[in-house]
Amino acid sequence: MSEVEAFYDKNAQYEWERLERHRMEFAVTLRALKDYLPPAPAKILDAGGGPGRYAIALAQLGYEVTLFDLSKNCLELAKQKTQEAGAKIASFEHGDARDLSRFADESFNAVLFMGPLYHLLTEEDRRRALRETRRVLKANGLLFASFITKYAVLRWAAKEEPDWIIKYSERLEALLSLGTLHKRPDDPGFTSAYFAHPSEIKPLLESEGFETLDLIACESLISMIEEKVNELTGEAFDAWVELNYKLSRDPCLYGAAEHILYVGRKRPREARYAHEKEST
């Protein structure tokens, strides 16, 4: 069992609850999905969807959702939560996001890829996974891909563990130069992960055959200072969602957000080659 699979098998309930603690991330991301997805009942693959927060929400809107994840425990929890919600998920599939071979070419109208890319430490693996998402997308299909930003780690350290940059100076250098942090044996926290600089995202996705439609700073203005806003309800919370979504495309906020959501469309093969030629 891989490090990532073991982490999520152990923390399935924690992962479900994470988006209750980070309500703005969930609300802004769901707003983007509603704005860009084709009408239901379009077919959606939620690859790396964990215990199914987004899958269930979209299924409740009438979409035909397949939930695919590396963690069997997350999938079992997703089945339970789906039943509790009175929703219907088309299929629960266990596997690695680098291998979507069980799905035929051009099977889905949209792919949610909101998790795998920060668990793939090498560019080769990230590109392999993105090629799989492109393969299973129908013509003009949509990709929603999430990244954790490089500076989110340092903002967390400043808030929670300011001496981290001294205690782990070698890890700091690896983060700044390579964007990777490898899990230490004595560290009970997150897995080894890749953290993207915002400037890397569009070139990576466009070079893999996607046309960029949007780039969204999910936490926007309230990254790392969200606690009071997340306690709000009703009109007050909705107003903050509206404001954060409105400002989420401001490049000034990309580096300060914890998550960036890329929205792209599968580019036809001919257009992809033309784009590559223009870029060289």
SSE blueprint:
Blueprint lengths: L2 H8 L1 H10 L1 H14 L6 E5 L5 H8 L3 E6 L2 H14 L5 E4 L13 E6 L9 H14 E12 L1 H11 L3 H4 L1 H10 L1 E2 L11 E2 L3 H10 L2 E8 L9 H4 L3 H14 L3 H4 L4 E8 L2 H11 L1
Parallel strand pairs: 1-2, 1-4, 2-3, 4-5
Antiparallel strand pairs: 5-9, 6-7, 8-9
Helix pairs in contact: 2-3, 3-12
Q: How would you portray this structure in words?
A:
The chain has helices at residues 3-10, 12-21, 23-36, 53-60, 72-85, 123-136, 150-160, 164-167, 169-178, 198-207, 227-230, 234-247, 251-254, 269-279, and strands spanning 43-47, 64-69, 91-94, 108-113, 137-148, 180-181, 193-194, 210-217, 259-266. The protein is globular, with a radius of gyration of 18 Å. 40% of the residues are buried. By secondary structure, the protein is of the alpha/beta class. The strands form 2 sheets. The protein has a 7-stranded mixed β-sheet, with helices on both faces. Strands 6-7 form a two-stranded antiparallel ribbon.
Question: Brief overview, please?
Answer:
The protein is an alpha/beta fold and 280 residues long. It has helices at residues 3-10, 12-21, 23-36, 53-60, 72-85, 123-136, 150-160, 164-167, 169-178, 198-207, 227-230, 234-247, 251-254, 269-279, and strands at residues 43-47, 64-69, 91-94, 108-113, 137-148, 180-181, 193-194, 210-217, 259-266. It is built from 14 helices and nine strands.
Q: For the residues shown, what is the average pLDDT? A: 95
The span between the termini is 41 Å
Total helical segments:
14
Order of helices and strands: HHHEHEHEEHEHHHEEHEHHHEH
Estimate the helix proportion, in percent. Answer: 40-55%
Please outline the major beta sheet. Answer: 7 strands, mixed
**Structural Rg:** 18 Å
